[in-house]
Structures are given as C-alpha cells and as structure tokens.
C-alpha cells in the first residue's frame, strides 16, 4: 500500500462528528516506516487534532524524529494543504525538500516541497543557545 493509500485508509477512521470533513495523513519516517493519522474532533470544536499532527505523534511515539514524505487526503473540490500549525509541525521533523502530496478522493493531486509551503520556517536555529 503506497503512502497515499495509507492516508486514504486513515481518513476513513477520522472522527469528524461536528464538521463532517474527514482528513487522512501518512508520513514516512526516515526508517521507511509509515505512520498514519486522521483528524479527531470533539465537542469543544474547533479544539480537535489534525490528521498530520496525529501521524507525527504516532511517528514520535514509535521512536522516530525525522520524516521524509507526507500525504494528505480529503473529500474536497481541490487538494487541501496542511494548516499553518501543521506546516510548522512538519517543518520540525522534515527538511525543506520533504515532499508533500495533497490529494482528493476523486484523484486530483498536487505536490509541493515543504519549503514551498512554509518559506522561512521558524526552527531550532532561531532560538537562543543556552
């Protein structure tokens, strides 16, 4: 199963009770292993968790801290991109060259590098050394 297929499968398990907008994500760790996530909403909407955040959390919980590729899928008229917060989270674990595949259920796709989605990303080099 390729990265996008795994994101699609994760999307089916999304808990989108309030918005009805299910999103699935898959990230490939530096080891080659794939981690998936889906959006999870709650009654304090919009205090949910994005699919990308869930996939990153699964990767970190498994002991990896570097990702090399991302896939995101939703039932939308055009491919969706990660929200601003998820772009920053992806930048924390991926490099500027990290490929982000954005897709719709009907087969539309767009691909961008992470540095195109988040130019000038804030990173650990921006922090003072202690």
Give structural notes.
With 130 residues, the chain is of the alpha+beta class. 27% of the residues lie in helices and 24% in strands. The protein is built from four helices and five strands; from the N terminus they run αββαβαββα. α3 (84-93) links the parallel β3 and β4 (99-104). A five-stranded mixed sheet has the order 2-1-3-4-5. It has helices at 3-12, 51-61, 84-93, 114-117, and strands spanning 23-29, 34-38, 67-74, 99-104, 109-113. The model has no long low-confidence stretch (mean pLDDT 95).
Sequence-ordered SSE layout with sheet pairings:
Layout: H1 3-12, E1 23-29, E2 34-38, H2 51-61, E3 67-74, H3 84-93, E4 99-104, E5 109-113, H4 114-117
Parallel strand pairs: 3-4
Antiparallel strand pairs: 1-2, 1-3, 4-5
Unreliable stretches, pLDDT < 50, 5 or more residues? none
The portion of residues forming beta strands comes to 15-25%
What is the number of E strands? 5
Q: CA-to-CA gap between the ends? A: 44 Å
Which percent range fits the helix content?
25-40%
> H/E element string?
HEEHEHEEH
Radius of gyration: 14 Å
Oligomer: single chain
Structural class of the helix and strand makeup? alpha+beta
Number of DSSP helical runs: 4
């Amino acid at each position: 199963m390729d990265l996008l297929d795994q994101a699609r499968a994760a999307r089916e398990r999304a808990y989108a009770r309030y918005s009805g907008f299910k999103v699935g994500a898959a990230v490939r760790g530096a080891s080659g292993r794939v981690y998936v996530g889906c959006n999870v909403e709650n009654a304090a909407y919009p205090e949910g968790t994005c699919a990308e955040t869930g996939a990153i959390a699964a990767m970190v919980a498994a002991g990896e801290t570097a990702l090399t590729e991302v896939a995101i899928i939703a039932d939308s008229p055009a491919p969706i991109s990660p929200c601003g917060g998820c772009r920053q989270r992806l930048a924390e674990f991926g490099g500027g060259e990290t490929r982000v595949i954005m897709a719709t259920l009907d087969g539309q796709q767009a691909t961008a590098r992470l540095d195109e989605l988040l130019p000038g990303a804030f990173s650990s080099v921006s922090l003072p050394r202690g």
